[in-house]
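W.,

You were right to be curious about this one. When I first looked at the sequence I had no strong expectations either way, so I just let the prediction run and decided to look at it fresh. Below is the sequence, 445 residues in total, followed by the output.
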Amino acid sequence: MRDILISVIVFGSLPFILKRPYIGILMWVWISVMNPHRLAYGFAYSFPFAEIIALTTLLSTLFSKARRFPVVPTTVFLMLFMIWMNITSLFAIHFDQIYFHWATIMKILLMTLVSIAVIHTREQVRLFIWVLVLSLGFYGVKGGIFTLASGGNFHVWGPEGSFIEDNNSLALALIMLIPLMRYLQLTEPSVWVRRGLTVAMLLCGFSALGSYSRGALIAIAATSVFLWFKSPRKLVLGVGLTIAITLLVTFMPAQWEERMHTIDTYQQDASAMGRINAWHMAWNLAMDRPIVGGGFEIYDKGVFAKYAPNPLDVHAAHSIYFQVLGEHGFVGLALFLILGILTWRNGSWIIAKSRDRPDLLWASDLAKMLQVSQIAYATGGAFLSLAYFDMPYYVLAAMLITRIVVERELHTVTRTAAILAPKRILKNRPAFSRNPIRPLDQSGN
């Protein structure tokens, strides 16, 4: 039944995608982030729904008159990052093993560029955020209920075969999602939807803690601080966050507290030391191959034997920064960091230009919450191999599209004011006599 339902939704959407390519982006986000086909048990589990949606969206975009691709620093550096990963792939240590990861990230970045080209309005941006929230929020609400029902004694996992399958990865994704839920709550007129989002945020918090991820705990702390800082109602939110975090932490069992306390004694934790060993490996590899790095798929015994302090302790990168550094060298890491900086600067620009503009309050709220999501990724990602996870690139796209919408609104206002200005001048001009110059009379007066 699930297989049939997913197939009907996907294939039923194709005619709409051909007419409106932004619908294809919404469907792509749903499939790539939620992975609903991984919840099926039959043919749909491995059916190439994402590829079908992507090809249909690309075809629709190609013939769409609404297509507008902005050539701005963010898109330029995003394309440079794509090009650079293609270059490093040619020099990869294990060239014959990299296709899967190369193809995955290329599809994600290509569809990110397409989303920037076909999403143009405030309403479309809001739908984009809603799809992200519903796709990931499903696992957050489900995981939160499971954590409550089990007393927090079991780990929460994501959908099989996805970026968020691992408990740690799912936790970070949910922490990145909570600020987007907050944005929808700030701009939603329905009181019942706002209350539902409050419950969903709490359940996502329970789910993140239920992952037993120490990186998630650090990300929650950093995200909470920035969420409070970016909120217009600091007192109310501060009290709410204090109560919510206290409730979440108090609920978790003793074994969860023991796991979190290992942060203080990381030298005695095999998992933590394994991550540090992987970081050393990535650094040493980058120093040996500073320009191109080692390419994808460098986490094996051969590479660790050559570059790691402990050659027998083979681990994944466990850090977005060391992952990109080891795989694509210092150039790749610079491009990766620049993308994050440009996204943050776009948000700051939106906030500054939207100040004292009630009609652009939605954009200011969204930019602030997207920046909070960035903080979650920057902190939690320092301990996870999620450099190619979809979510941060969708945050990048949403921020840039929002800036373009704001620029267009400001330009429209400026242009309207320029057109109306001459009319105001004429209207306010002092009255003159129709015959201001009178002929002289015979006396010369």
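Here's what jumped out at me. The mean pLDDT is 86. And, maybe more interesting for your project: The first helix runs from residue 2 to 19.

Coffee later to discuss?

I.
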